[in-house]
Amino acid sequence: MKVLVTGATGFVGSAVARRLVEEGMCLRALVRAGGDRRNLAGIAAALVEGDLNDPESLVRAIDGCEALIHVAADYRLWIPDPDSMMRTNVEGTRAVLGAAMRAGVSRIVYTSSVAVLAQRADGEPADERTPSVMADMIGTYKQSKFLAEKLVRQMVREEGAPIIIVNPSTPIGPRDLKPTPTGRLIVEAAAGRMPAFVDTGLNVVHVDDVAAGHLAALRKGRIGERYILGGENLPLSEILAEIAMLCGRKPPRIRLPHAAIMPVAYMAEAWCRATGHGEPFVTVDGVRMARKTMYFSSAKAEAALGYHARPAAEALADAVAWFRANGYLD
Length: 330
Fold this sequence. Notes:
By secondary structure, the chain is an alpha/beta fold. 44% of the residues lie in helices and 16% in strands. The protein contains 11 helices and 12 strands. Helix 1 (11-22) packs across helix 6 (207-220), helix 5 crosses helix 11 and helix 7 (236-247) packs across helix 11 (312-325). The protein is globular, with a radius of gyration of 19 Å.
């Protein structure tokens, strides 16, 4: 099967690309002109230059492919131009799925996110049935992914699009080049630059398990269904303690109230906006999201797809080892 993967140079996309080749499929990767292609080193792939905001390039990229895995997205918790994220994550999704439909592909896997799910009022892990509305979405990233998944569902319902939705939780592991917001947290903690933390929790999953879940969805997923690809639910304090143990450091003991962090987040964003440099480590939307634990259940994917995730400790160990080997902790 010849499969086009968007976002194949990125963190999750490159893991999907590697898994696809390992399982004997023919990989075509959509790459941006001049983009960083280090994550595709050593992968047998046909590279096609294009961009989600260039519909004609998507038509060329999908031509002759039997399936599409649409991973590409702008994933940041802060952005100076929110409209650009909306264009990429919503209109870019519309464009690439439309091109795939016109090309007659037989299967499409769309990479959504657990960000589109609300948290349960009783504190139990959310699942695919947990209802959510736009008002639940904090920040541009969540809003854009919510609207994109709504678009996907509409295409399945009204156009018969053969799309399966996967919702990764918080992937970590090797080849997080940028790094992602979670990767930045791991780097700061491993380098001993996180003396304090807020009371929250995350669902942590190895990026290679997420990639395996994509391939399982491509093969076994039911059209129109969504599947959470998660791992282990852990308090942030336990995540930081595990990272500290891996690095031979003492874990942070200072637990800060969310209200104490919010002014720092506002100042960090104002500084980045004024200087035009970098991305704030602490963001207003990030602090707002941290007010609730972000716990999820992958039971549906386990039962329907044969999905399996390794322990979070292994994922954290692989992430720290990769960041150390690649100079992020110097």
